[in-house]
Amino acid sequence: LKATVSVLNCTCYTTCTHRAMYSGGLGDENDGDYEDDQDGFGLEDFVMDDTLDAITRLERYHTSDFSLQRLVLVRDLADTAEDCGYQATLERMLPLLSNFVADSEPSVRKTFVEQLWPLANFLIEGGEAGYVELNNTFLPFTFELLVDKNVQVGISAVGTLIKLVEFVRDDQVEPQLQNVVVTLAHDERAEDYRIVAAQLFNELAERFGKERCMNVVVEEMKKLGTDTSFSVRRTVASNLGKLMQFIGPDAAVEHIMPTVQALSKDDIWGVRKACVEHICEISKGVTRDVRKGELLDLFMKLVDDQSKWVKVGAYQQLGGFIHTFDPEDITEELIKLFAGMAPQEGAECDYSEYCAYSFPAVIQAIGKERWGKVEDAYVSLVKDVEWKVRRTLSFSLHEIGKVVGPEISERILTQAFDLFLRDLDEVKIGCVTHSAEFIACLSDGARQKHLHSIANLPQETENWRLRELIANNMGALAELVTPKTCKDLLHAAIIRLAEDQVAEVRTAAYPSFGKVFKRLTEGDKGEHEELKKWAYELLAGGEKSHYQKRQMFVQIAVHCLAEDVDPDMFVPEMEKLAQDKVPNVRLILAKAMTENIVGPGKLTDNTAVQKIIENLRSDSDKDVRYYSGAEQAA
What we know:
Blueprint: H1 2-21, H2 31-37, H3 43-46, H4 54-61, H5 67-75, H6 77-84, H7 86-93, H8 98-101, H9 106-126, H10 128-146, H11 151-164, H12 173-185, H13 191-203, H14 205-208, H15 210-224, H16 230-238, H17 241-247, H18 249-255, H19 257-264, H20 269-277, H21 279-284, H22 288-303, H23 308-323, H24 332-339, H25 352-366, H26 375-382, H27 387-421, H28 425-433, H29 435-439, H30 444-460, H31 464-478, H32 483-498, H33 503-521, H34 529-537, H35 547-562, H36 571-577, H37 583-596, H38 607-617, H39 622-627, H40 630-633
Helix pairs in contact: 5-9, 6-7, 6-9, 9-10, 9-11, 10-11, 12-13, 13-16, 16-20, 17-18, 20-23, 23-24, 23-25, 25-27, 26-27, 27-28, 27-30, 28-31, 30-31, 30-32, 31-32, 31-33, 32-33, 33-35, 35-37, 36-38
């Protein structure tokens, strides 16, 4: 808090200095006149006294005319409560809070309502008085800000209320929550009250409980669904899903589907658009028969709506809507509609990005048996001129591969994989991030061919973030191929990554180095010997070698041991490095061992490893002792 006040004070000083410069400069003989011209505001009016404790500072400045001061105080309310203690919060802080509810600055009100939950949590944990204040202070303040004229304040208030209601005891739900929301729903003075009520009936359905929902909430939502204000009806259309799913499909179909039907035919296109934008939530809340019958018919009408924006909304939701069906209920008409979202040859399409985004979900729903129905659409999307479409597909290759299996993956998806690896970095990053997961979808014979492209990429790109991603995946890739293939394709690549000029790449490469080395040791022709030789060359010259090379060896050795390779391959040199003259070498050894091989079920039972740990924990350097876990051990 002191740091915050110091920053605020510096800001105030800078502001006043800036203003003084335009009045003749600091120390100018006209300073007195300047202060008079500025309604009596001087530097002291903007600066908070940082010698005061937090609660006293709040008391002094909570009505400050300077909004930035009020914002800083509000942002730190929870910390101030912790600082001043339980009783002082009740007696000195709470009486001041009503000022912030009515603050003239929206940013102050928004920050204030976001602080109500941590503040209430602090008080409720402290005793019964805190629960009393929940009902008397925090909930009323939140409800007041729910209908704030500023939209962002209202959104933050909804989020706060959803968290606060978890504190409300069951016997208080009706008087403290339900009755207040019902009152808002019946308020004819402003549509904003009824809009908030529609949101809360849906968001708080689970907290109201099934009986209250059936007896009260459902009926209130029906009435709001026929409100004279289209904004209220639009809000109802957007807020039926959670309520329907909570009361169960049979009740939802009987009591709420008529409202859904009416809203989907509303004269105002914005209401119909809201309805179709939440069709997936509604679909999850109805019975299977209604989903494949009545709801599907409703959706198909909205796809052909006279409003362009309703149609766009329908196509945006199409993939997700299909995913809510059982596979056998998905009609050919739906699949054809989805495939039609892809660009046709020689023509542009407004829905390509939505189609690409939804493709994995649709494939999961229809299964590989019906891949042929959407294959042409997929191939078209892979070649789309919009890089965002290709990027989306690049990130989902592995998910589609898991569903369609090796044959389709090798025939279609590998072509996309190779194309994306030659594409823009923004596209390339997707298949690189999930390269191991995609390669795992292929048969053993196809893995080697496509692994070659990944292995060569580090030397072909100057983008170090791509090299870091490849380094992260290299270990998992090694586990997918034979030791011979690992040596042929990944041996040189992992060395290149471990020697990369960018530290982040090297750091990512070390764990993968351990996995690659482990895979090589599983061969029967000594495939690991060459990689081991390279690692030991880092120590050539002993302590005369550059200390960073010895640090590299430490990282490599520890990660190899973490993969259960023979300790005798590395432990003898690690014992020497535990006595290295450079503290940073010992520190890296301590940190790496603590993070990777010290702990239950790890190598701590090895006598030599245990000796290294003991030496590091009694090291002359305090940082080495800290990272070796000396304090925890003590």
